[in-house]
Structures are given as structure tokens and as C-alpha cells.
């Protein structure tokens, strides 16, 4: 039976009429190479980051107090159930608001950080595909670079957030406002130009984000590939149960527990690799509270930690770090992947 054909005048090609109608009805595919994809990954990345940080905000507050060796909470560090004891002490003295102190600044920081991180990761991964053949190396490089870019943009906000979380005013005394903390940091005399005070510990942070960002994305992508390949029978959602909008996606959708597990494991691996650098960075960030006019160097902090506690000192708070990063990475990657499925993004 002959098939009716029409001619595309611009191209001079004959196409089946029914094929052209189907193509006209199908929604335009959003791929990593266009602006719509970049904008969507930017927005859902920011939402995923804020969701994850809200879940672990109380743990993050206690972790900062432990890392910076806050005098009022140092007694809980390294003890059995010290995390929960410190959290209970904060709750008794300050209430729920105490557990979320500095969280508004955290959200203001994490939205652009996570948005830029996820968006640039997707774009860098696509760009590196033509230059780096090894998939794992490509994922590591894209993760490291996107982490460095997002950190550079959001670091001053992180500095303010750490200072706010570090503060432990007397009961009944309100916590310092954001503008007060900003003003105090700016007027510290460690640097000639006040804005440089917002970048205390930045070079060290840049060093730390390379293994942290690279390893986290590398591990996550590797675990997802296992879930969609070798263990698909157990971890993948059956084709008939996948989200209605995901029919045009090339990637298979994984079950919720598999997505959450992959994210949690990637967080544990990344945290272990980069934790010593993170601890030194936190100490540098709060150095201005004790010595506003002194420019504290990383080598000074390293010597102090080593002399007081040896190698174990660089891993103070790591247990609470694990408790925090497992749900944080799990929720962050899970939310990101599910939103990608909803918006039909590969």
C-alpha cells in the first residue's frame, strides 16, 4: 500500500505525512545542550539543596560547634551520644530556634550553591564528553570543577552562616542579626580590605572541594549506573510503573530506596576523603572571633590541632559528619533525580 508523502520545502526531502504529524505533536525534547535544560537544572538543583539542608540543619549546627571547639559544647565532643546530648542542651537553652540558628543564611547560601553546582555539573559533563573518554574521570572532573565554581560564588554567605551558627549567647539574649555579623566581619583588621575577611579559609576550601565534589559525583554516578545496569532487576522501577512524563527519558528510573542509598553512600565517601581539610577551614573561619586583627594561616591551625590531639584531632566531629551527610546527600540527590524525572530531563 502506498504511503502518502509530503515534501518539506526548505529541505527538499520527502517524509511520510503521518510521521510529520507525530513529530509536530510531540513536545520538544529538553536536552543538556540547550538553555531550557540549564535553567531547569539550575532551579531544581537549588530546591534539592535547600530541602536537604533543612532536613539536617540541627545536625549541622552541632557539627559546627564541635569542629570549632566551642568552649560551651566541647565537653560533649568525643563522648557517647555526644551529638544528641549537645542537641538536647541547645534545645533546653534556646528551644527549636537554637537548633536552626543561622539556617536562614544557610538557605540563602545553599540555593545558589546547589543550583550552580548541579547546573554546571551537567554542562561540564557534556562538554568534557568530547575531550575525556573515560566516563569515571569525566564525572570526577565535572564534579570537582562545578564544586569549585559554586563555592567561589557562595563562600561569603557560608562565612556569615558559620559565624552565626558558632555564636552561643546567654539564655534570653537574642542571637546576632545578619547585618551585625556582616558588619563585625567587615571591620576585622586581619586584612587591609574588609571584604577579604569574608574569604578566610577560602584557598583551603578550594583545595577541599576538589576531592569532595569530585568523589561525591563520581561515586553517585557509579552507583546509579550499577542500579540501572547490573542490579536493575532489584533496584529499577518496572517500565510500566515509571512516571508518565519519563517515557521519553533514556535513563531508567530507580526505586526510592536505591536512589537514597546511592546518595547516602556517596556522601560518606566524600566526607571521609575531605574532612580534615574541612575541619581546618572551619577553624580559620571562626578565627576572627578570637583574633580579629590576626591573619590566621592554615599551617597554624594544623600545628595546633596536631599538638593538642594528634591525627585524631583532624577527625573531630566526623561521626556527626556521617550522621549529617548520609541524609543530606540522600535527600539532595534523590530530590534532584526525582525532579529531573518529573520534568523529563536525562
TrEMBL record:
Q: Which organism is it from?
A: Coemansia biformis
The superkingdom of the source organism is Eukaryota
Q: Per its UniProt record, what SUPFAM superfamilies does this chain match? A: Mitochondrial carrier
What name does UniProt use for this protein? Coenzyme A transporter
Report TM segments: 139-157, 202-224, 314-336
Its organism's taxonomic lineage begins at: Eukaryota, Fungi, Fungi incertae sedis, Zoopagomycota, Kickxellomycotina
**Gene name per UniProt:** LEU5
Please provide the record's keywords in A-Z order.
Membrane, Mitochondrion, Mitochondrion inner membrane, Repeat, Transmembrane, Transmembrane helix, Transport
What membrane topology does the annotation report for this chain?
Answer: Multi-pass membrane protein
Q: Where are the Solcar repeats?
A: 36-127, 134-226, 254-342
Amino acid at each position: 500500500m502506498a504511503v502518502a508523502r509530503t515534501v518539506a520545502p526548505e529541505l527538499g526531502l520527502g517524509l511520510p505525512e503521518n510521521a510529520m504529524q507525530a513529530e509536530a505533536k510531540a513536545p520538544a525534547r529538553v536536552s543538556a545542550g540547550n538553555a531550557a535544560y540549564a535553567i531547569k537544572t539550575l532551579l531544581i538543583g537549588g530546591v534539592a539543596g535547600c530541602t536537604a539542608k533543612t532536613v539536617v540543619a540541627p545536625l549541622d549546627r552541632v557539627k559546627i560547634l564541635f569542629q570549632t571547639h566551642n568552649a560551651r559544647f566541647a565537653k560533649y565532643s568525643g563522648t557517647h551520644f555526644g551529638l544528641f546530648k549537645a542537641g538536647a542542651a541547645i534545645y533546653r537553652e534556646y528551644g527549636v530556634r537554637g537548633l536552626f540558628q543561622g539556617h536562614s543564611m544557610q538557605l540563602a547560601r545553599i540555593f545558589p550553591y546547589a543550583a550552580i553546582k548541579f547546573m554546571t555539573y551537567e554542562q561540564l559533563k557534556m562538554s568534557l564528553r568530547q575531550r575525556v573518554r573515560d566516563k569515571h574521570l569525566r564525572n570526577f572532573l565535572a564534579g570537582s570543577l562545578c564544586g569549585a565554581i559554586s563555592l567561589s560564588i557562595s563562600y561569603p554567605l557560608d562565612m556569615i552562616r558559620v559565624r552565626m551558627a558558632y555564636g552561643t549567647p546567654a539564655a534570653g539574649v537574642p542571637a546576632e542579626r545578619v547585618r551585625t555579623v556582616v558588619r563585625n566581619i567587615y571591620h576585622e583588621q586581619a586584612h587591609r580590605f574588609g571584604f577579604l575577611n569574608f574569604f578566610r579559609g577560602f584557598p583551603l576550601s578550594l583545595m577541599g572541594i576538589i576531592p569532595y565534589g569530585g568523589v561525591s559525583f563520581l561515586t553517585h554516578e557509579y552507583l546509579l549506573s550499577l542500579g540501572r545496569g547490573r542490579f536493575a532487576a532489584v533496584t529499577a522501577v518496572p517500565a510500566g510503573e515509571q512516571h508518565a512524563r519519563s517515557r521519553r527519558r533514556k535513563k531508567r528510573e530507580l526505586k526510592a530506596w536505591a536512589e537514597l542509598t546511592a546518595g547516602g553512600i556517596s556522601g560518606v565517601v566524600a566526607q571521609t576523603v575531605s574532612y580534615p581539610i574541612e575541619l581546618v577551614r572551619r577553624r580559620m573561619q571562626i578565627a576572627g572571633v578570637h583574633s580579629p586583627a590576626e591573619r590566621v594561616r592554615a599551617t597554624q591551625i594544623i600545628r595546633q590541632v596536631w599538638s593538642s590531639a594528634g591525627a585524631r584531632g583532624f577527625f573531630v566531629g566526623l561521626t556527626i559528619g556521617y550522621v549529617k551527610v548520609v541524609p543530606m546527600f540522600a535527600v539532595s540527590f534523590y530530590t534532584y533525580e526525582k525532579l529531573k524525572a518529573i520534568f523529563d530531563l536525562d
